[in-house]
Amino acid sequence: MVTGSGGAKSGTLLVFVTTNPADSAEVADWLRPQLATDEVTVANGFYAGVAALAAGSRAIVLNVGPPDGQDSWRLAELRHRGVPSSTEEVAYVVVADATVLPQLSGVLRTDLAVTSVGRLPPLRELLVSEEPLVDDQTIWRRTMR
User: Fold this and answer.
1) In a domain, 78, yes or no
2) Any domain includes 56
3) 75: nearest Cα among 87, 86, 66
4) Taking the model in full, what pTM does it have?
5) How far apart are CA 18 and CA 24, in angstroms?
6) Does residue 7 belong to any structural domain of this protein?
7) Count: domains in the chain
8) Is residue 120 a part of any domain in this protein?
9) Which of 28, 102, 105, 113 lies 20 to 30 A from 137 at CA?
10) Residues 124, 127, 131, 133: what is their CA dihedral angle, to the nearest 10 degrees?
11) Which own/partner contact pairs does 127-133 have at CB distance under 8 Å and 24+ positions apart?
12) Is 21:62 a contact under the CB 8 Å cutoff?
């Protein structure tokens, strides 16, 4: 899923869900050295995220705001709305405070959930992960074998 230069191959989408603008900015900064600037879209709100998915952005950093008052079904719809092609693979990652991490990762059925950008694994590991992970400890254990 990852090319030799570290960029994502065509067909692999990344959706990062955050709950505040600071985390969104950090995730975007983490992605930009690994992907072209025009491949990273930062969006605020559910509908902006769906539009970014439909537009074919390679990586979407979606700030959904604080989870209080969020309609869980709306976030769950991200897995089913706006993906341009059914053949594309989409990896969902939540970067949020530990108190809301279980709620968001459960609703979104995330592939990875971490409490900070510093806990994100290298992009190549994220793209080759085959099972949902909570925090990056599972990835660390797998890479230590």
Assistant:
1) yes
2) yes
3) 66
4) 0.77
5) 6
6) no
7) 1
8) yes
9) 28
10) 70
11) 127/1, 127/2, 127/8, 127/12, 127/14, 127/91, 128/1, 128/2, 129/91
12) no
